[in-house]
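argininosuccinate synthase, pasting as requested.
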Amino acid sequence: MDGNVLRKKLNKVVLAYSGGLDTSVIVPWLRENYGCEVVCFTADVGQGVQELEGLEQKAKASGACQLVVKDLQEEFVRDFIFPCLRAGAIYERKYLLGTSMARPVIAKAMVDVAKEVGADAVAHGCTGKGNDQVRFELTFFALNPELTVVVPWREWEITGREDAIEYAMKHNVPVPVTKKSIYSRDRNLWHLSHEGDILEDPANEPKEDMYMMTVDPKEAPDEPEYVKIGIVKGLPVSVNGKELSPASLLAMLNEIGGKHGIGRVDMVENRLVGMKSRGVYETPGGTILFSAAQELESLTLDRETIQTKDSLALKYAELVYAGRWFDPLRESIDAFMKEVTKSTTGSVTLKLYKGSVTVTSRESPNSLYRQDISSFESGSIYNQADAAGFIRLYGLPMRVRAMLEKGL
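Structure tokens follow.
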């Protein structure tokens, strides 16, 4: 129970702060229960300016001593999104890991801010049912194990929105007047996720008015649009010949892809904590980039390498989903991915049309595709007569088994 918990005295806590009801209530709760100063921290990972407006005023009105805002967009794309893209990391066949990649970059920044302001603790507003609590806390453990981690949802008696509003009024905390969405959403530069309400029943089709980053494919332009992605060593560098920073490149592709209804995914996934959850994701730019990167690899990587890379990509995605970004295993697999994609340089042209992405062209100076070998015309490198001996040897186990079954 809240009143009977013996709590360690803290000096200063850095709180992951959004300005919503939950984090607004956490500020006075931390001060009341831990007797500490509260530094609110907000990361800009591309969630949009409307979510960042008026935050300092809100934080101080809640009792925080200061608000620190950091623009992490370039770091997020360069150091978190692009490595996952290079690795081909997709969780459970569909999920492009938007929220999973954002949490460690935010938590890393919180550890840095804690050092800057002399805090001895960090706090977050994640509930005990989701994946995000794990992602935040594993990052804290990995980067500064000396920090105390405070998680109000595991300690307090507040059980829902009405309790939180009552607590806020009692402590003179201005209750955010923003209209409460019927969906639980998480937005960043890579994606927008939707959970809750009618989506909780996997049998229900999502309503069209739920989507915010992508138009209904039926309403998308009637003419296809072609987009050329330039890639160097497995990482995107340009769109239609124009070189862009990682965040700018992704923002441009989000706009282009969203206009054509690209990147909608509806899935039931296995959460880390054991339950299944149903979510709908919009990842327009990411979907385009994954198509381009995979297609270029078809030219630059041989069969054994692609198979090995794909098998490790599953593990890589699992580690990222589980919050193990700073795990030595993730870092080691990433080193393999960096090495194996050194030759993946070139360009891929994609056709975007009413929700679909189709590859129309792929080119690479390091292409392993040789027209003189692949041609149906006879060439000097590939002698078709060699195939007979190869097939006899390759099929020997099958012949031996058939001979045994026939008593030969």
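Note for the archive: The mean pLDDT is 94.
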